[in-house]
Specification:
binds 2-acetamido-2-deoxy-beta-D-glucopyranose; 3-stranded parallel sheet; disordered N terminus; binds copper (II) ion; di-copper center containing domain from catechol oxidase; 12 helices
């Protein structure tokens, strides 16, 4: 204890002696982690502040640092779009590199943190970040979750109506204009059986009748978290099974959430991915050999049914390790996977309640 103190004190002062902000990364101590909590434990005021901050990003001008190389196919950068849209663009830009590949979890951890930092620095947001623990809704049906609240200031909004193309008209984000891939307002078209309804090419699907409410059960999450000791590839293959809780929830929501490239248009994305990041952190905390475990393919195997069968979610070679750089598309810090493996590791500083 005393030794720890002696070692930490000089480090503490050194942190203040060197500039805290650098163009690439911060290396300060994580003394007061920012909190991420379940959406239902936000107060109404906290929910309202959360959406106010997102709307603030949607009212900020385009950030010229956004630098796709190359641009998302068929979707050039729109200089009249907002800072919020820029962040959505970052997610769309490297579709097949950052989904169903080893870097999926690190990229999305970095992405959530980058959005959080923009909410705080550009929009003065001081509240918590959130997650949607869908395991709480598995038995009643996720579409009946109380999170789909239509309140204009504090609600995530409900589902659109068929007669109106499933456009979301209520909640704080209903009617909000987003720019990518083309200007629109968000859509949610729910089905509990997205694979039976062809929302993913059938050649990749092993369980066409999978019901999303079976994929989000607490027992499913427990299996993923408690198993796969020390083996990131095995863990991630089970975590991101195509019919599982990650893709299952996206495709079940349909509309914007069902679009792998542009799903962050719907603020539900950030709560869903908060939960996914939390599940990864739970696995990391389950065993010392899980903490720094990382590896796998660098691009998705969704190019052919054969590649998918061979490689699965953890992706195709060339393989990458912790020194791989997270593609930031000019936005946010440029960091490696190693920098974000610990959510309280200095560069990142948050914790899940
Ligand atoms: C660019 O974004 C603005 C603001 O959302 C929108 O009005 C405009 O139509 C967009 N242009 C294109 C070509 O999509
Ligand atoms: C809504 O989902 C159903 C079933 O998956 C599909 O047939 C329909 O085309 C979708 N409609 C819209 C507007 O997305
Ligand atoms: Cu994604």
């Amino acid at each position: 204890m005393l030794l720890t103190f002696i070692l930490l004190v000089p480090l503490f002062f050194q942190t203040f002696a060197t500039p805290v902000e650098t163009p690439t990364r911060r290396l300060d101590l994580c003394i007061i982690p920012s909190v991420r909590k379940e959406w239902r434990s936000f107060s109404t005021r906290e929910k309202t502040e959360y959406f106010k901050a997102f709307k603030c990003l949607a009212n900020k001008p385009h950030d010229k640092r956004l630098s796709p190389n190359p641009p998302t196919p068929g979707v050039p950068v729109n200089a009249s779009a907002s800072l919020f849209d820029d962040l959505v663009y970052v997610h769309s830009n490297q579709l097949e590199k950052i989904h169903m590949s080893a870097i999926f979890l690190p990229f999305h951890r970095w992405f959530l943190n980058t959005v959080e930092q923009r909410l705080r620095k550009d929009c003065g947001y001081r509240g918590p970040m959130g997650y949607w623990d869908w395991t709480k809704d598995a038995s009643s049906g996720i579409q009946k979750s109380s999170i789909f609240d239509g309140n204009r200031d504090s609600g995530l909004g409900s589902f659109g109506k068929a007669s109106n193309g499933f456009v979301v008209t209520d909640g704080a984000w209903g009617g909000q204009q987003v720019a990518y891939p083309t200007p629109h307002t968000i859509v949610r078209n729910f089905t509990a059986t997205p694979f039976r309804e062809g929302r993913m090419q059938p050649e990749f699907i092993n369980k066409p009748n999978q019901n999303v409410n079976d994929a989000v059960k607490v027992s499913v999450v427990n299996d993923v978290v408690k198993g796969n000791k020390g083996d990131f590839v095995k863990f991630y293959n089970q975590f991101d099974e195509l019919e599982g809780f990650h893709s299952g929830v996206h495709f079940a929501m349909g509309g914007d959430m069902g679009d792998t490239s542009y799903s962050p248009n719907d603020p539900l994305f950030f709560l869903h991915h908060g939960m996914l990041d939390r599940v990864w952190a739970m696995w990391q905390n389950q065993h010392p050999s899980n903490k720094k475990a990382f590896g796998g393919g660098s691009t998705w195997a969704l190019q052919s049914a054969e590649a998918w069968k061979t490689f699965g979610p953890a992706g195709m070679p060339p393989n990458i390790g912790p020194s791989a750089r997270i593609p930031n598309v000019g936005m946010g810090d440029s960091v490696t996977v190693a920098d974000i493996l610990d959510i309280r590791g200095g560069y990142l500083c948050y914790s899940y309640l």
